[in-house]
Amino acid sequence: MSKWVVLDIEGTLSATDQVLVVLYDYARPRLGPWIEQHGDDPVVADAVRQIKELSGHDDVVKALHDWMDADQKVTPLKTLQGLIWQQGYAQGDLVAEFFPDVVPAIRKWHGDGVKLAIFSSGSVAGQIAFFQHTTDGDLTPLLEHHFDTVNAGPKREAASYHKIAETLQSDDITFYSDVPAELHAAQEAGWKTVGVARAGEPYANADFSPHPTVWELS
């Protein structure tokens, strides 16, 4: 086992529907009100500026909804979603659920001295809230680092994995993901890689070669 294990979330640790259905449906009607209520927050203000710049128009909420409909991994959208989800988890509106093998596996790895980190397109704030409020309790003590498209970069580019390795100060890293393109990028950066083919998930029947493939974590 590597010194570090870096894990994707959606489709790897948790069902895609939990993000694309449960979390998206929770965030969608709250985006506009959140921007109105938190317009003075520098993080929100910067996200709004980026949305206008990227979309080319001033209808911020429409741009956000369009990106959600297309499942676009756009950074300011992820930032705002993360803030909304953070509050939702704190209020008890949301509870994170994992595939049955996940929590036993990460607890075992942690107990064996393996250091664990997350790399997800969801914001760091959203990731932390996700792991704090789960059906298995607060799992954040098991995790050393969180990475997203802001502090690391796009998940399908090798440069992002080089950047994470620099932060972790290690070349001994294994990345688990259900997306072959992400595994290719991590392998290009010199990481070990493992494809996770979850039954019923979008990439269940994908071609994971040349990456070793598992159907559950162990």
UniProtKB/TrEMBL annotation:
<comment type="subunit">
    <text>Monomer.</text>
</comment>
<keyword id="KW-0460">Magnesium</keyword>
<comment type="pathway">
    <text>Amino-acid biosynthesis; L-methionine biosynthesis via salvage pathway; L-methionine from S-methyl-5-thio-alpha-D-ribose 1-phosphate: step 3/6.</text>
</comment>
<comment type="similarity">
    <text>Belongs to the HAD-like hydrolase superfamily. MasA/MtnC family.</text>
</comment>
<dbReference type="InterPro" id="IPR006439">
    <property type="entry name" value="HAD-SF_hydro_IA"/>
</dbReference>
<dbReference type="InterPro" id="IPR023214">
    <property type="entry name" value="HAD_sf"/>
</dbReference>
<keyword id="KW-0479">Metal-binding</keyword>
<dbReference type="InterPro" id="IPR023943">
    <property type="entry name" value="Enolase-ppase_E1"/>
</dbReference>
<keyword id="KW-0486">Methionine biosynthesis</keyword>
<protein>
    <recommendedName>
        <fullName>Enolase-phosphatase E1</fullName>
        <ecNumber>3.1.3.77</ecNumber>
    </recommendedName>
</protein>
<keyword id="KW-0378">Hydrolase</keyword>
<dbReference type="InterPro" id="IPR036412">
    <property type="entry name" value="HAD-like_sf"/>
</dbReference>
<keyword id="KW-0028">Amino-acid biosynthesis</keyword>
<comment type="function">
    <text>Bifunctional enzyme that catalyzes the enolization of 2,3-diketo-5-methylthiopentyl-1-phosphate (DK-MTP-1-P) into the intermediate 2-hydroxy-3-keto-5-methylthiopentenyl-1-phosphate (HK-MTPenyl-1-P), which is then dephosphorylated to form the acireductone 1,2-dihydroxy-3-keto-5-methylthiopentene (DHK-MTPene).</text>
</comment>
<comment type="pathway">
    <text>Amino-acid biosynthesis; L-methionine biosynthesis via salvage pathway; L-methionine from S-methyl-5-thio-alpha-D-ribose 1-phosphate: step 4/6.</text>
</comment>
<dbReference type="Pfam" id="PF00702">
    <property type="entry name" value="Hydrolase"/>
</dbReference>
